[in-house]
Amino acid sequence: MAVILVKAYIRQLFGKPDIHLFEFDSQSAGIAELREEISKLVEGRAVELTWLDQDGDQIRLSTDEQLKFAITHGVKENVLRVSVRVDWLNVQASRQLTNRSEAMAVDGEEETAEAGVDASAEQEEGGTEEAAEGNEETGAASVAAGGCNKAKCR
Prior knowledge:
Layout lengths: L2 E9 L6 E8 L5 H11 L5 E6 L5 E4 L2 H11 L4 E8 L1 H38 L2 H17 L5 H4 L1
Parallel strand pairs: 1-5
Antiparallel strand pairs: 1-2, 3-4, 3-5
């Protein structure tokens, strides 16, 4: 068993990267195990892994063969340095969508409740027939102006 140290540089949206160091069995473990270890550090978010070659180029790590090559050519003083790009933005975007959806649901419930209050107030005042006639007139004027009513848009 050849154990190496993996130094994972987890890039943040702002500021310096978080650096984590852990042992890794370079002979029996593959890319899936490396991703699993790193996934624990970033709470299961999607990641892209790269390593820095001798020319200073960032080389992607996505297969077992690429990992073996990185271990063979990139390990210095028993340490493989891996850059981790975390998909922070999609996580934030999905959280924003969730928050927006929840807010819209609350707003929709409030609008529905307000509409129910307005309708019950009209019924109590006995103005439902007048309101219905007004809606028909407004609808006809809207259609004449190029708008849409139920009969025209179907």
